[in-house]
Fold this sequence. Notes:
Blueprint: H1 2-13, H2 40-57, H3 59-62, H4 67-87, H5 93-124, H6 127-137, H7 142-160, H8 162-177, H9 181-199, H10 207-214, H11 227-241, H12 263-282, H13 288-308, H14 314-317, H15 319-326, H16 334-339, H17 343-362, H18 364-376, H19 378-391, H20 394-404, H21 410-422, H22 432-440, H23 447-451, H24 454-471
Helix pairs in contact: 1-18, 2-4, 2-17, 4-5, 4-17, 5-12, 5-13, 5-17, 6-8, 7-8, 7-9, 8-9, 8-22, 9-11, 10-20, 11-24, 12-13, 17-20, 18-19, 19-20, 19-21, 20-21, 21-24
Amino acid sequence: MQRFGIVCLAFLTALLGFGGAAYAASSGGVLETLDLTSHWVGYVGIITFVVAYAFVMLEEVTHMRKSKPVLLAAGIIWGLIGLIYSMNGIDHAAEIAIRHNILEYAELFLFLLVAMTFINAMEERMIFEVLRVKLVNAGYSYRKLFWITGLLAFFISPVADNLTTALLMCAVVMAIGKEDAKFVSLACINIVVAANAGGAFSPFGDITTLMVWQKGIIQFQEFLVLFIPSVVNWLVPAAIMHFAIRKAQPDASVENIQLKRGSFIIIGLFLWTIATAVSFHNFLKLPPMVGMMAGLSLLKIFGFYLNKTHKRNAATYDPQKAEERIGQIVPFDVFTKVARAEWDTLLFFYGIILCVGGLGFMGYLGLVSQLMYLDLGPTVANIMVGFLSAIVDNIPVMFAVLTMMPDMSHGQWLLVTLTAGVGGSMLSIGSAAGVALMGQARGKYTFLGHLKWTPVIALGYAASIIAHFIVNGSLM
């Protein structure tokens, strides 16, 4: 147990780094770098990152957006690196290192921006709202709704990402559960586990799986071998929580909402965009974001069509009929969908990459790689990644693993992809889905409420790892 604590502490203080011990210069040579692991700059860098991340974890208490502290920390860390390299007369090394980080971030940023824009466009076209209303009006019992929302969260998250899916399903639960705090709490826990599990077997389901795919370590179709372990991860805790849900039936709603014009075309364009991104990566060996940006152009062109065919005077004569035929009183504007992207998340992502990239460039990455993957072995290290994801967040943890690039079998890379994706479900603060639902279902879904079921969720975590070894044992 003491050794586990030491490993956790070391990992927390050396999370990630797209920079390694040395960076190759454009001329083909290797740039000179400094080992700052025992230097005051290294210590200040670690303290800065830990303090910044403490503010991130306390976001629900301080109400300060998580991007703010990490953006400041990134500037401080790289400012210190630039200072010490200038004092030692080493030119351009820090510049090349940070440009490398920025390039990696840019690819992920553009990919996520397009995905978020499509999700916002579908939300504005009332696609998710119609689904919510149909579920509310169906008249299912609490237990049936518990399973239906979990099942939908599991199968929607591979396409729409786990955060968006969790928020959608939580809206359904809140509309149905109303004052039944216990049902809302259990249903939200089930949704978080299901959304994270569903996102683990798809590159589009979670940022960590997206990073692994973009690195070229696991091909798109190879993620599907994680389907059964992901199902096990969700079903084990869900089956146990099922008995805590009362058999009563909630009151049905009479709310009626219709899809707006062009809804199905936008869904089709999103699926086409995903296919394009996969094809560009698998067959043309281009970054997936190139295909995503091409898909964004199609959405923009279709938005132009919606705008041009908008009947501006229809509302004057019959607003209700105009709403049904046109889809909205205000013309469709794709740039409003871009503006509504999760900018705090995108900027947080930048801050994390730059922060831990700087720590990696200081030399801490090699120490952690030696301790985890050589001393403990890949299986123990990869299982530990899941527990760390529940405490810290899976994004910086997976970045660290990808940067270390330990020599592992294909099955071990699939294992760490699974554990990083589903490990965050053990705590409500361990994933973006959990944090978001604590805000959406404030007072009903809480940290302590989730913590009560952590042993059950951990049982599902262990069962999913066993299932992976059984199903994918030949790859280990």
